[in-house]
């Protein structure tokens, strides 16, 4: 029950940011009355962003007021793909320990890649982002927003995540294109071509969702209010 309360509170905070964005730009965001399909895809996009922010543990301003700010090797990694070997949380003592460390690093990398594949797909469907360079920029920007926010809490700001999230976004568009070439059903389902948004940048909406959570989501404060800690 407590998990549901926290998740609902977190989602509401992001949605407030989204609603403010739509309220400010209500006359310039959409071209005409949106279709049911467009509304469905947009809803999926919003829910997806909320879940990504939750899953990655994006930091908030309240985290910054709670946790000490540090720039230690355990909180920041600027060396791609070798941080677990250079600064492991638990020093490996046997060959099995090394194998488990490498397997865990590989699984974590794969999950970071897969996590952003839907982002690339939704960029294509909602905004008509076809170009790999533009896709990579959007994936990089979203991931960078998350990684920088993690400087406010005790999670790791990791260049590996930045690279893999960007690749995952590009992979999402590439895979969708390949599937569309082979499936009329998928091609028709992804036929919004981004015209409904009149060229508005996806990162504006992403930033609005992020900002709502960043400024309003006080996890520790809610826990204290509910006497959980």
Explained architecture:
The structure is a single chain. The protein is mostly helical. The chain is 68% helix and 2% strand. It is built from 11 helices and 2 strands; from the N terminus they run H-H-H-E-H-H-H-H-E-H-H-H-H. A two-stranded parallel ribbon has the order 1-2. Helix 1 crosses helix 2, helix 6 crosses helix 8 and helix 7 packs parallel to helix 10. It starts with a helix and ends with a helix. The model has no long low-confidence stretch (mean pLDDT 85).
Topology:
Elements: H1 2-24, H2 36-56, H3 61-66, E1 76-77, H4 83-86, H5 95-115, H6 117-127, H7 132-149, E2 157-158, H8 159-182, H9 184-189, H10 202-216, H11 219-225
Parallel strand pairs: 1-2
Helix pairs in contact: 1-2, 1-10, 2-6, 5-8, 6-8, 7-8, 7-10
């Amino acid at each position: 029950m407590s998990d549901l309360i926290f998740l609902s509170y977190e989602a509401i905070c992001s949605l407030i940011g989204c609603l403010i964005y739509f309220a400010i730009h209500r006359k310039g965001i959409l071209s005409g009355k949106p279709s049911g399909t467009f509304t469905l895809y947009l809803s999926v996009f919003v829910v997806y962003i909320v879940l990504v922010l939750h899953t990655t543990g994006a930091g908030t301003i309240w985290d910054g007021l709670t946790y000490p700010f540090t720039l230690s090797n355990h909180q920041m990694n600027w060396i791609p793909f070798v941080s677990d070997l250079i600064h492991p949380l638990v020093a490996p003592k046997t060959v099995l320990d090394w194998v488990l460390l490498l397997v865990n690093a590989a699984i974590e990398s794969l999950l970071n890649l897969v996590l952003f594949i839907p982002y690339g797909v939704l960029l294509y469907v909602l905004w008509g982002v076809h170009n790999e360079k533009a896709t990579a920029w959007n994936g990089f920007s979203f991931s960078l927003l998350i990684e920088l926010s993690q400087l406010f809490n005790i999670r790791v700001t990791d260049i590996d995540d930045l690279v893999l999230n960007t690749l995952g976004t590009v992979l999402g568009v590439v895979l969708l294109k390949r599937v569309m070439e082979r499936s009329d059903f998928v091609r028709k389902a992804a036929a919004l071509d981004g015209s409904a948004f009149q060229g508005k940048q996806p990162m504006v909406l992403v930033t609005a969702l992020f900002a709502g959570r960043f400024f309003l989501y006080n996890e520790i404060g809610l826990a204290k209010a509910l006497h959980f800690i």
